[in-house]
Amino acid sequence: MHSLIIGCGDTGTRVAARAVAAGDRVTGVVRSDASAWRVRAVGAHALQLDLDLDALELPACERLFYFAPPPREGEADTRMQRVLDALPAVPAYAVYISTSGVYGDCGGEWVDEDTPVNAQTERARRRVDAESRMLAYCGHATVLRAPGIYGPNRLPVDRILDGTPILDDAEGGWSNRIHIDDLAAVAWRAGDAHWAHRVYNATDGHPTRLGVYYDTLAGMLGVASPPRISWAEAEQQFSSMRLSFLRESRRISNQRLLDDSGYVFSFADFRAGLDASMRAQAPLD
Hints:
Blueprint: E1 2-6, H1 10-21, E2 25-30, H2 33-41, E3 45-48, E4 63-66, H3 78-86, E5 93-99, E6 110-111, H4 122-137, E7 142-146, E8 148-150, H5 157-161, E9 166-167, E10 174-175, E11 177-179, H6 180-190, E12 199-201, E13 208-209, H7 210-221, E14 228-229, H8 231-237, H9 240-246, E15 251-252, H10 255-261, H11 270-280
Parallel strand pairs: 1-2, 1-4, 2-3, 4-5, 5-7, 6-15, 7-12, 8-11, 9-14
Antiparallel strand pairs: 10-13
Helix pairs in contact: 1-6, 3-4, 7-11
Keywords: Oxidoreductase
GO molecular function, one term: 4-phosphoerythronate dehydrogenase activity
Protein name: SDR family oxidoreductase
C-alpha cells in the first residue's frame, strides 16, 4: 500500500517509520530540506512542496495522513482544500490530526467526543473547518483531536532553567497531553482500520494542573520549581497566544479511543513520558 503523509514533521516521521516497517511505499510531503532529510532517513520518499503556492501534483494513495497545520490567518483551512482537490482519488484510509482546542473553554469539566465544539479562537475555528472538510471529502476518515504534544525536544526545559514563571494553579485550569510516540502509534493504527466512530480524543486521559507538570520536570532537572504569578501578572508578561491557551480549561476523556481501538498507551502516566523524553532529549548547547 502507499502511505501519503501531508506535513511530515515530528509526528509524521514517526508514522512514516511505522509505515515503512509495515512494507508500505511511503511519501512524506515536506517544505524544508531538513524535513526532507529526516523523512529519507526512515526509508521514505520526500516530496518537497509549498502547499499554499506550488502547483500540487500528488500521488494516489491508499492511506492518507494529514498532519499539516492550517494557514495562520482566517477561519478556513484553504491549505487542506488545495491538497484534497489535488488527490487523484479518495483513499481507503484517512487520518487527520486536529486539536482539542475545538472544544473551547469548558470550565474544567470533563469533555468527550459528544461535547459540542465551541472554538473560541480563530486558530481553533480553522481546525473545526479542517475537520469538516476532511470528513466531507472522505466520510470514513478518522479525526484525532490532540491536546498538548510532548516528547524529546518538545519540553519547556529552557523556561524552567531560566526561571520563567507560570500561572498559579489556583487561577489556572486543567491541562491535557499526549506523548508524541503515542500520538504517532494511534495515528498509524487509525490508518489501518475503520473504527466505529469518526472523531476521537487522542489524549492520555490523565489531565493535571499545569503546575504539577512543570514541578515534575523541574525535579527531574534538579532545579527549583518555576515561580507562580497571578492572572493579572500573566496578562502583563505572557504573549497573547499563551494567554489564549491558559483561558481554556477542560479535562479530556479518551474512553472512546480505548474502547474502539484497543490501544494501550506507552505513556499514560506523564511522569514516565517525561522520564523517557529526558533520556532521549538532545543535549542543550
